[in-house]
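User: Just a sanity check before I run the rest of the batch. Below are the structure tokens for the first item. I only need the designed sequence back.
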């Protein structure tokens, strides 16, 4: 399979420590950036599910952020905020992962069905020790899915749940007939729902049960065996309920976990996950400031973001050994930046502002996923609203869209597009001990028939001109959109919601098959060629 982003950036990264000693910021200015897009040798599909979003019962991710309840003064439809749902619809969110996260491995689905007045109020032991009213349960989640126009990724409870509980939840959601289907109908939904993805637990190496890899692989086999959806002929072929099972995969560079899961459990699975968060300022626990950072904090985080390429490469190589035909997918179903919480916010709510730095982190990741689109067919940024690298922040009745939201908006043409291989020869960008590629990018042929090219410039202070050769593409017109901002830590607030917002971009010229693009410092650009 052709790799879609044969960038020298990865090579530069591998040699980062050597380069750090020799490269300087002057590199960006003095070395030209060149690229070739191979439109004549298309690669795999960039699965739209790479734009999946994660909504956990955590802080104000669900309550307040998405759900305000039917009686709220905040405009809502069946309890879900109209402003937030409208913004998510505009983003064409393909899939929502719910209810966790760590929350999933303590979640008991029966507590979230039936009359809300009779649902137990629990304590959310993972996230802040606050009460969990169970007001949003299975029916409400599928109402959210309906309103957003997305599909469901439901994460099951392996940690403190039983295989029977998991099997019955799946039956409750998907069965066209039987007592559980009758109960679902009595609770207001006669038709079965479609569950596209089902997670066999979450982070079984950690909050999901502190399991060792061999044990987790056996447990995954066992639970997975009982997750069944109705055969198509149960309803004269009318029920389409193929469900893809995703196992709890590795944390960062735990390659032994991937190896063990693949060796022991692969035949029972469709996907294996990987979780990787950007933790600048020295790793765990999160200590980097979301807004008050300098250029070193900027470069640190972007350098960490590039690590995703190496992680996917190595985890994929292990999967290739057991699954050379790539039947299974690697699901990077938690990724994004994880900083210190915003001052004054509840500890355990993981609320953080989102700046131009997060926009670059999002763009770099979405480009890396293009390179690996043959194996990576699902990813989920953490998280959707008010938590970690969020798309949307809310406070009472106010809502603001983050720089990360706008990157996802600009990359919408990547959804189910065909990846076009791109070779990028970029100079490095160095700040102190952090050296990374100055320019990241990817290219696709969209379902609209146009070529779309993303380019981002990580250099905080210098513009970068990229000369791109288009192999196998017809001459035409170019138009573009840019996301940039006055400062590396520029961000949107309720008082000033449009500080970081896409604008028309006129810095690209197409002459014959040569595209010349001048990227301002700290910018993300998306070009449309037709
Ligand atoms: O996204 C926040 C938490 O990070 C999730 O609940 C967990 O899976 C991960 O550790």
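Assistant: Here's the designed sequence for the first item:
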């Amino acid at each position: 399979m052709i790799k879609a982003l044969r960038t020298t950036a990865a090579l530069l990264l591998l040699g980062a420590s050597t380069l750090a000693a020799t490269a300087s910021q002057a590199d960006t200015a003095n070395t030209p950036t060149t690229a070739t897009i191979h439109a004549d040798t298309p690669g795999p599909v960039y699965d739209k599910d790479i734009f999946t979003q994660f909504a956990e019962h955590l802080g104000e991710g669900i309550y307040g952020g998405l759900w305000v309840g039917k009686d709220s003064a905040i405009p809502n439809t069946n309890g879900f905020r109209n402003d937030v749902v409208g913004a998510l619809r505009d983003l064409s969110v393909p899939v929502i992962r719910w209810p966790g996260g760590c929350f999933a491995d303590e979640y008991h689905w029966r507590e979230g069905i039936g009359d809300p007045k009779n649902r137990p109020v629990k304590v959310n032991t993972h996230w802040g020790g606050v009460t969990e009213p169970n007001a949003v349960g299975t029916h409400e989640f599928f109402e959210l899915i309906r309103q957003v126009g997305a599909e469901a990724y439901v994460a099951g409870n392996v940690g403190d749940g039983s295989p029977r509980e998991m099997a019955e939840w799946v039956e409750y959601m998907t069965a066209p007939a039987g007592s559980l289907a009758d109960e679902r109908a009595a609770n207001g939904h006669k038709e079965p729902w479609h569950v596209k993805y089902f997670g066999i637990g979450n982070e079984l190496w950690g909050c999901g049960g502190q399991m060792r890899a061999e044990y987790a692989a056996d447990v995954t086999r066992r639970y997975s065996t009982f997750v069944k959806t109705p055969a198509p002929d149960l309803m004269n072929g009318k029920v389409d309920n193929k469900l893809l099972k995703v196992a709890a995969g590795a944390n960062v560079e735990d390659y032994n976990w991937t190896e063990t899961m693949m060796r022991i459990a692969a035949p029972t699975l469709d996907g294996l996950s990987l979780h990787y968060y950007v933790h600048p300022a020295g790793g765990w626990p999160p200590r980097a400031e979301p807004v008050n950072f300098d250029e070193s904090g900027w470069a640190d985080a972007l350098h960490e973001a590039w690590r995703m390429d190496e992680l996917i490469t190595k985890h994929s190589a292990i999967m290739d050994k057991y699954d050379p035909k790539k039947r299974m997918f690697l699901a990077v179903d938690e990724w994004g930046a994880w900083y210190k919480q915003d001052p004054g916010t509840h500890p355990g709510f993981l609320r953080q502002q989102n700046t131009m730095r997060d926009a670059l982190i999002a763009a770099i990741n979405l480009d890396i996923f293009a390179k690996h689109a043959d194996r990576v067919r699902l990813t989920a940024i953490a998280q959707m609203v008010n938590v970690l690298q969020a798309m949307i922040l809310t406070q009472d009745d106010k809502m603001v869209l983050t720089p990360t939201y706008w990157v996802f908006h600009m990359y919408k043409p990547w959804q189910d597009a065909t990846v076009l291989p791109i070779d990028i020869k970029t100079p490095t960008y160095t700040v102190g001990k952090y050296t990374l590629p100055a320019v990241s990018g990817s290219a696709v042929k969209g379902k609209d028939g146009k070529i779309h090219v993303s380019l981002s410039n990580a250099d905080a202070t210098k513009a970068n001109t990229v000369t791109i050769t288009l192999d196998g593409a017809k001459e035409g017109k170019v138009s573009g959109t840019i996301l940039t901002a006055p400062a590396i830590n520029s961000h949107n607030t309720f008082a000033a919601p449009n500080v970081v917002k896409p604008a028309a971009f006129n810095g690209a010229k197409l002459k014959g098959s040569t595209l010349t693009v001048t990227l301002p410092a700290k910018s993300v650009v998306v070009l449309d060629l037709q």
